[in-house]
Write a structure and sequence with these properties.
single chain; 557 residues; binds P-hydroxybenzoic acid; 6-stranded antiparallel β-sheet; alpha+beta
Length: 557
């Protein structure tokens, strides 16, 4: 059996309740303006029993999608795996983002790519210019079609039923509260006039093939957009060039941007042709949830929620729709189980059934993607450092290489008073620190030698290594072992152990350390006690960074 046909009604009776409930909790958390919530508030917002929320939260926490901090629950970066699954499976960022970035460079204006999402417009790529602009939308943000340039292009192809759905939404949500990314409608405008104006812009889009936003969202913001069609001729997304009235009026932006925007769209459509001609790569097996969790947590663990989320991720394991058979294979689930999860996702608007299988829909981005995509490196690292400090009862930090120094980007102090007063932003010469040594050790040999010949090591303590041969040996050891221990070379009594943080390609992008008093033990004892949890924390930080950066760019600064 393949997917059910798109017209076949999906019976909610077949839906997997724990999966529905888990997604309801995640959606409620993502929609709330506060990043932390209490289970009791979630019970109120979702209408679920408090005991149900607790079981859902326990399961999602064990799966790594939620984190508990005291009585509060927070979304974790890992949740972005779901939005990543949509972005990977639609194939658009992969094929089109490089063209969007090239256009932004050439025009020196922001460029975005958006897809239709029912009667809304969802951003999937942002190539921003750093300028002071009142609004800047995030990947995953949803806008009402009538309030941005791409909307008229998508609406130009609406059926009458889709137009009706749009009008109904306008009536039932007069303030645009379903669209937290845009300023609320004032209620002062004349709704009929606004709707007629949109229909005029839709007509113009149909006739001219382009769409202009002359300060629809807020004063100053102007944009021009063109549709991008797939080889079947369907409009799959729109590319916008976005500017500000301090630089362009709407007509002058069109004149300035249109020629290059047109050739970019040609190149994009070409890229989509090439992508369609290449056979989709085989699906990767998703790492299924660890079934020992079920035993560990007993009835507190909702196995069917875990399995349903595996199915969601599996749909992102390759480009294009995925058949039931492939989904079952990728998740190692029985077909009947995979099918019920797929039907549930379809019922909730996260997936669509097509003749050749199921495909994820942009609505998946509602599961926290825009907010989590704004996390800084420090915010990603801090919970992992806090967990490490809890284990080893010593302070932990993350630093990056900045010129010849290390610069602290995150730090969690142990409650005991430390003699060294280090804060975020503190810099130390790389050669005298454990984090500096693992970072220098990862440099290409040429750069490592350049560094050693450039710096004049200072003798901070009698133990500080100050000669090029001694430092070279220390770096070679760090490179070989994959960690470094510096014993009272920066400060008397201070011992520090560091391990690298790597990205998804295994490149060292930062270092994590634990700093402790030298009296805590011999260096061997310190290494044996601290290195395993330190490495685990460094791995988790790197994993989270990879998930967050996959479609939103690096945040190592
Ligand atoms: C944006 O990418 O921020 C954007 C695009 C089109 C608009 C407005 C904003 O009409």
């Amino acid at each position: 059996m393949t997917a059910s046909s798109p017209d076949e009604p999906v019976s909610p009776d077949d839906a997997v309740r724990p999966l529905e409930r888990g997604l309801a909790v995640l959606r409620a958390m993502a929609a709330d303006p506060s990043p932390r919530q209490r289970p009791s508030d979630l019970a109120r917002e979702t209408g679920l029993a408090r005991s149900t929320v607790d079981r859902v939260a326990t399961t999602l926490t064990r799966l790594g999608h939620l984190r508990a901090d005291g009585r509060d629950l927070l979304l974790t970066p890992r949740l972005m795996e779901f939005g990543n699954a949509y972005l990977a499976s639609c194939g658009l960022p992969e094929a089109l983002a490089p063209h969007a970035f090239a256009l932004a460079d050439r025009l020196d204006e922001s460029v975005s790519i958006a897809v239709p999402d029912e009667d809304g417009v969802r951003f999937i790529t942002q190539a921003p210019r750093r300028r002071t602009m009142a609004v800047s939308f995030r990947i995953g943000d949803l806008l009402p079609a009538e309030r941005c340039a791409p909307g008229a292009l998508f609406a130009a192809r609406w059926t009458e039923a889709e137009r009706e759905r749009w009008l109904t939404r306008r009536r039932t949500d007069p303030l645009d509260s379903r669209f937290p990314a845009v300023p609320k409608r004032t209620g002062a405008e004349d709704d009929r006039k606004a709707e007629a104006a949109f229909e005029d812009r839709v007509r113009a889009a149909r006739e001219t093939g382009l769409s202009v936003d002359d300060q629809l969202i807020e004063p100053g913001l102007v944009a021009v957009a063109l549709p991008v069609r797939d080889p079947s001729g369907a409009t799959v997304c729109a590319v916008s060039v976005v500017s500000h009235t301090s630089r362009h009026t709407a007509p002058s932006l069109v004149e300035h941007a249109l020629p290059r925007l047109r050739s970019t769209v040609d190149a994009m459509e070409h890229a989509l042709h090439a992508q369609a001609a290449a056979p989709p790569p085989p699906a990767d097996a998703v790492a299924a949830f660890d079934s020992s969790l079920k035993e560990e947590l007993g009835s507190g663990f909702l196995q069917s929620l875990a399995r349903g989320l595996d199915v969601l991720r599996a749909l992102g394991s390759r480009r294009g729709p995925m058949s039931l058979a492939d989904t079952a294979r990728a998740t190692a689930l029985p077909r009947a189980t995979a099918r019920r999860a797929l039907i549930t996702l379809q019922h909730l608007g996260y997936a669509a059934a097509e003749p050749d299988g199921y495909r994820l829909l942009p609505r998946v981005m509602d599961l926290g993607f825009p907010r989590l995509s704004q996390l800084t490196f420090a915010q990603i690292a801090r919970p992992h450092l806090a967990a490490l400090v809890e284990q080893v009862h010593e302070s932990a930090s993350v630093a990056v290489l900045d010129g010849d120094d290390i610069r602290y980007v995150a730090r969690v102090a142990a409650s005991r008073i430390m003699r060294v007063d280090i804060t975020v932003g503190t810099r130390f010469p790389a050669y005298a620190t454990s984090m500096g040594r693992v970072l220098l050790a990862a440099l290409p040999e040429r750069e490592r030698l350049d560094h050693l010949s450039r710096v004049t090591p200072r003798r901070f303590t009698p133990r500080t290594k100050t000669t090029v041969p001694a430092l070279s040996r220390a770096l070679a050891t760090a490179a070989r072992e994959g960690w470094a221990l510096v014993d009272q070379e920066l400060e008397e009594g201070l011992c520090s152990l560091a391990a690298p943080v790597t990205d998804d390609l295994g490149r060292v992008i930062a270092a994590a350390n634990v700093a402790l008093h030298a009296s805590r033990g011999t260096t061997d004892q310190i290494r044996d006690a601290v290195l395993p949890p330190l490495r685990e924390a460094a791995r988790r930080i790197g994993d989270d960074l990879a998930v967050v950066s996959r479609f939103t760019g690096s945040r190592i600064r």
